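Section 3.1 - Work completed
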Amino acid sequence: MATTTDIKNGLSIEYNEQLFQVVSFQHVKPGKGPAFVRTKLKNLKTGRTIENTFSSGAKINVVRIERRPYQYLYQDEAGFNFMHSETFEQVTILSDLVDNADLMKEGQMVEINYHVDTETPLTVEMPAFVELLVSSTIAGEKGNTASSNALKPAILETNAEIMVPMFINEGDLLKIDTRDRSYYERVKK
């Protein structure tokens, strides 16, 4: 059992029978009253963030979360199939544990967070940026291409739809930010 003095960013804890990761924390010692720790916690199952205050010295239950490298293989009716890049063990993950799954293409490397004590997968984390080809998009209208804020829809090779600048054409290789599903830059081939 740990106490609030052990809290640091990235620490995974069990709180209200759910798993959370500490996003940020602040030790507060007011002029009157006891000290406390103000935290921002991210739920590892749902991804939602909550704020919580712990009394200074309160006991917390630390959990071990392990990040393991996996390669995405394919999707079937059971879910997404991944292979561990070192042990070659294969695992099937339910689709609700994968955020932005439509940005994932076969062969893509991801990290799966595991609860070490129970050996259960918690979430699948994609890299911050992926490179994908544009399979279809509408042509930019003359006069709109100079404006930096004009956007149009584009379908990527994984059938994901994102908004891209007007100068993007079919066949372009794009760098996509997986955290907010936004266009980042055009990649030179």
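Second construct:
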Amino acid sequence: MLDKDIIEQTEKWIKQVVVDCNFCPFAAKALLKKTIHYSVQSNLSEEESISILEKEINYLNENNHLETTFIIFENCFKDFDSYLKLINKAERWISKNKYDGIYQLASFHPEYCFEGSDELDPANYTNRSIYPMLHLLREDSITKVLEFYKNPEAIPHKNIAFTQHKGLEYMQALRLACL
């Protein structure tokens, strides 16, 4: 598949799932203002993926107009456990390189399952994307948006209630429609 097609699918997922379900209070603005950078990657090892993470952080450092970047793994880290290992390594790399407080890492995966959750729980669809992804966000952008958002600590609870109200079939169909 072409990178542009993968990016179009990802944008559709962000719009139709993340924004339209109101899972993230700042996604709509970033999408509308086109301040999201996308990097499509294929056939990478864990080490190569960390190099891409570093490259994307450098890209954000050089492009202050961008709010966020998605590293989309087209055909690697399909297994959720291998993806979780990548997340752990990426978080350690961010800390080791003193990017804590500057960038935040969010994780999305087609098989995402919150710890202690049943894999059929619709709440998992708040983080179930169409491809495995690493999502880098600027901490200062998050802070600015949350200043105007009442009760930000309630966001996860609101998202869980929404997905459970809509149900598993609805959430599955919504995500599938993005492919």
